[in-house]
What does this fold into?
Amino acid sequence: MTDLVRLSRKARLWIIAAPFFWLGIFFLLPFGIVLKISFSEALLAVPPYTEILSQAADGWHLQATLANYRFLFTDNLYVLAFLNSLKIAAISTFICLCIAYPVALGAARASPRTRNLLLLLIVLPSWTSFLIRVYAWVGILGTNGHLNQLLLSLGLINSPLVILRTDLAIYIGIVYTYLPFMVLPLYASLSRLDWRLVEAAADLGARPWRCLVNIVLPLSRPGIVAGCLLVFIPATGEFVIPELLGGPDTLMLGKLIWQEFFSNRDWPLAAAVSMLLLILLLAPIAVYARAQGPGTGAVAATALRPGDRGGAP
Amino acid sequence: MSRRWLTRLPLIAGLVFLYLPMLVLVIYSFNDSRLVTVWAGFSTRWYAELLRDRQLMDAVVLSLSVGTLAATAATLLGTLAAMALTRCGRFRGRGLLGAMIAAPLVMPEIITGLSLLLLFVAMGQWLGWPAQRGSVTIWIAHVSFCTAYATVVVAARLSVLDTRIEEAAMDLGATPRRVFFSITLPMIAPALVAAWLLAFTLSLDDLVIASFVSGPGASTLPIVVFSSVRLGVSPKINALASLMILLVTIGALTAWWWAGRSRRRQ
It folds into this structure.
């Protein structure tokens, strides 16, 4: 079945070589450079880091340092940022799952005609700007925001709630912006589920709750895993949401990399934090890549097309 | 009856959660007051001010042109990569190519942005190019991460195509080039359109990567919006957001209608 199109050798070479070279130079090589710079020292110069390899009269000199990594593991701030990123990503992933599951279930049980429309409605927000969706919450959650005004005018609270610039706002932001990424893989596996199994169980006297826990949940596991990873991985390195909705003392890795890079101009340290974030996410990324099989992330991208069922057929 | 509502209610609640914030945003873009959250009567003044804002309009033009060029290049490269993965059989490095396609889809943007910037700085040192970062470096960065998405969309279509049609054409004596251009290409055309649109929206939406690889004088729309939003809410941004939501809604509904029509025709 392989090599169906018997391409001429030259054409085949070009087809493979072109994307290979582009991605090799602009995706793979950069990681090598980040790794290299993470072992160098910060310097007040252009560019602001020391060269690891230098040539002197008596040959090449290797001057690498582990100082950046040692600093990351000994400085409280960075350890806390690591733990906090993981905590915030994990909790928001869980909340996302709790909200998305009933939504996906509702969409999968709808009639085939309304299903496509529902799917479009769920995907549509993710086609509009990410920044705009986060920004919408700045106006809602602020001290003089819409939520506080509503609650005050209803007499439910006496003084405005402080939500913006707290961790709660970050959770709301992540759940809101990543919800479609959770719903789609869930929907993909729920709509393929053989519902006759549930009917059979119900006929045999199983209660709806029991059917859900013993049949529907286990059978939709691939969707749950894919959805959780699609939310957890990007949320761990999230920058925009903690920057716009979180407080100044909220520590998250994405924000930290940005600060080290742009404010402190400590490029080697920013590179080291990036490498650690990458190592941290390597396991979930590998699980995700394996779960998606050779189709590589097909759920993520194809699901973004309107009218598509989401995921491979 | 009550069972039906049990599955419908969470769905409706979820959709309200998704749409209410945007609805509020759109409504308050017509607010006359400078204070975004206090209603002071209907007005379209912020839309007029938006069009007069040179910095914002320049950013729109830059974003649209980078997006168009990046989406085109990414669709081209993505089609080649998809052909390599689905039509070229086994070759050395196939696994690596697959990994380079899969990884950008889930890579945190901040790492991609930082790594590309460090590459451009190193290239500037070794090769003397790029001497300065700007629209070209943003374009390169966008092509790189959009290619991954374009590849997935096109490969998904290529892998469900009936390859017997291609084989039949080849058995009848068509050259591989002819087969590609008169059989494969027309059949994957919808996927190419979808890939281009996806790449275009991703490029238009990107803030983090563009912030790293842009230079002085090259600010894309998200960069300008972000620097304004950082200072708090502004009615002008509400107006801009409403226009974007309107455009996306029209585009998506058209695509949905078009997809539905072509499905009925088949």
Remarks:
- The mean pLDDT of chain B is 89.
- The CA atoms of residues 154 and 191 of chain B lie 5 Å apart.
